[in-house]
Write a structure and sequence with these properties.
Pfam families: Proton_antipo_M (PF00361). The protein contains 22 helices and two strands. The protein is mainly alpha-helical and about 575 residues long.
Length: about 575
């Protein structure tokens, strides 16, 4: 029985268990060899459903192959290999085991042929990505991990509600294109968008990723949001509402990244920004747009991981993560600086880098669809990306003032990992046909034309000029940028306290009124019914004292007469 009958995710799951059991060179061998075997298994899976399992009268399809699925699984596996190479000397064994299981969940989603299988792997990602955040080992990482878990498990519940609704409504668990037209499909879309970090529930990303270890952040940057992009391509291609959501993500990420002081929070908001480009492409829904979304996800994992690696090396060597604490590091960290700059150029869509050859496909899809306003918004956003990631990140970290820090450059394994991804950024920029050949639809697109290259160079040139002209305004201080999570971390907490105080005050008022009513009833009882243990001769209450026989007869006659009158008249 060949590889094609089992999800390649199981290889990484087995590797995660072995990482926990072995030590030393054996563990290092597993970390580096397991992704290679997984990659081999991925390319053994042909198109179509490869295996089915009957479960509760449903046909579960744990493995389904397609060019799109293999593309995402391939870059996820490459990420595991390079991330493992980057991490194995300093990351703790349980962090690496959690990261490999997290990646296994992402690869499992890639090949899931039905909604139930997808949901199982989806939740596997949520659990073990939370553990990766907790591996930061600080009070901040524990708190951020808890908020991260709550948000993702809430998203999982919403997704599950949608899946159940679709299954009850259609009787099918197949993964197939749909539109958000009813409650169930909207629930699925919302559940996916939570993982894609779409505002207003995107703050979990910038809250959690910077709290992980320098190595954990590299893994976190790759899987969750891009798995959501894959799910959107499979389930909601052409859903027009995604265009508006994606554009909002693009602008939101730029603004908050420009405001940030923390190096990894800058990169985290940049993730939201870049995923916004992919969401827009899925909303456009043409073959060119979907190719662009898939290609840009592939390229984004590479250059974003490269940027997080560069930032991670700086934090590992200096122990500092604020822009105002860094600067002048190019003197002693030239390799980290150069690789960081290559990643910054790639995310900015600089010609001859991977970002240019993939992001321009999305812009071209907008032009082909006569979506001029979308094209203009994406073009403006490209300038914003160069401001916050292309210039701000390398400038404040490696240049600006001399911070007086003289740390060593990256250890050999970290340096090699950065070189691999930096080379891939340039390789896919110079030879984009390598990536285009892997895309789900035939590609008839030439990224390099004189007009297009000159346009992007002018755009980036004027963006850079604007950065240095506005540099005094770009300097950060020790401030906190308030995001939408303020609503539940501060405003929500204050609202709960206010409600508690109101309920407490209401309880005191109710208690006082209850005591007053109790005393009134006691007085009325004593007045009309008497007190216990009181002799009849001494009782003075209305209904408890002894009455004369004549008075009693008079009362009985009066009551009987009243009854007769009411009965007959």
């Amino acid at each position: 029985m060949g590889f094609e009958f089992f999800s390649p995710a199981f290889i990484l799951l087995i590797a995660a268990v072995l990482i926990c059991l072995v030590k030393g060179h054996a563990r290092t061998t597993i970390i580096l060899i397991a992704p290679m075997i997984t990659l081999l298994a991925i390319w053994q899976i042909p198109d179509g459903v490869q295996s089915t399992v009957n479960f509760l009268s449903y046909n579960i399809e744990p493995v389904e192959g397609s060019p799109l699925r293999r593309l995402f699984a391939t870059i996820f596996t490459i990420m595991v290999f390079v991330g493992g190479l980057f991490s194995f000397r300093i990351a703790r064994w349980y962090e690496l085991a959690a990261a490999f299981t997290y990646a296994a969940g992402a690869i499992g989603v890639c090949f899931a042929g039905d909604l139930i299988t997808m949901f199982v792997y989806w939740e596997l990602m949520a659990i073990f990505s939370t553990i990766v955040v907790w591996c930061g080992g600080t009070p901040g990482s524990r708190a951020a991990g808890m908020r991260y878990a709550i948000m993702h498990f809430l998203g999982g519940v919403i997704l599950k509600v949608g899946i159940v609704g679709v299954v009850l409504g259609t009787g099918s668990i197949q993964i197939q294109p749909m539109l958000a037209t009813d409650f169930s499909t909207w629930m699925i879309l919302i559940g996916i968008l939570i993982n894609a970090a779409a505002p207003p529930v995107s703050a979990w990303l910038a809250d959690a990723y910077p709290e992980a270890t320098p190595t954990g952040s590299v893994f976190l940057s790759a899987f969750t949001t891009k798995t959501a992009v894959l799910a959107l391509i499979l389930l909601f291609p052409g859903e027009s509402v995604l265009i508006g959501i994606g554009l909002f993500m693009v602008m939101y990420g730029i603004i908050f990244a420009l405001l940030e002081n923390d190096v990894r929070r800058i990169l985290s908001y940049s993730v939201v920004n870049q995923v916004g480009f992919m969401v827009v492409a899925v909303g456009i829904g043409t073959e060119m747009a979907l190719n662009g979304a898939a290609a840009h996800a592939f390229a984004h994992i590479i250059y974003k991981a490269l940027l997080f690696m560069s930032a991670g090396v700086v934090i590992y060597r200096t122990g500092k993560n604020k822009c105002i604490e860094l600067g002048g590091l190019f003197r002693t960290m030239p390799l980290t600086c150069v690789c960081g700059i290559i990643g910054a150029l790639a995310i900015s869509s600089f010609p001859l880098t991977s970002g240019f050859t993939t992001k321009s496909m999305i812009s071209q899809a907008a032009v082909d669809g006569n979506l001029v306003w979308v094209y203009m918004a994406l073009t403006a956003a490209s300038a914003g990306v160069f401001l916050h990631a292309g210039i701000k990140f390398p400038w404040f970290v490696f240049f600006q003032k001399d911070s007086g820090l003289r740390p060593k450059d990256a250890p050999w394994n970290m340096g090699l990992a950065m070189i691999i991804f930096a080379s891939m950024c340039i390789l896919l920029g110079v030879f984009p046909e390598i990536l285009y050949a892997l895309l789900p639809y035939p590609v008839d697109y030439q990224p390099y034309s004189i007009g297009k290259v000159l346009f992007y160079l002018q755009l980036l040139l004027f963006s850079g000029l604007a950065f240095f002209v506005l540099l005094p305004l770009m300097k950060r201080t020790m401030t906190i940028s308030l995001d939408t999570d303020w609503l539940w971390r501060r405003a929500g907490f204050s609202l709960v306290k206010l409600i508690e105080q109101a309920l407490s005050s209401l309880g005191e008022v109710i208690s006082q009124q209850r005591n007053s009513l109790q005393k009134l009833l006691q007085r009325m009882t004593v007045r009309y019914l008497g007190q216990p243990h009181t002799a009849d001769s001494q009782e003075r209450s209305v209904f408890a004292r002894s009455w004369r026989v004549g008075t009693t007869v008079l009362w009985i006659a009066g009551l009987l007469s009243a009854y007769v009158l009411l009965y007959y008249f």
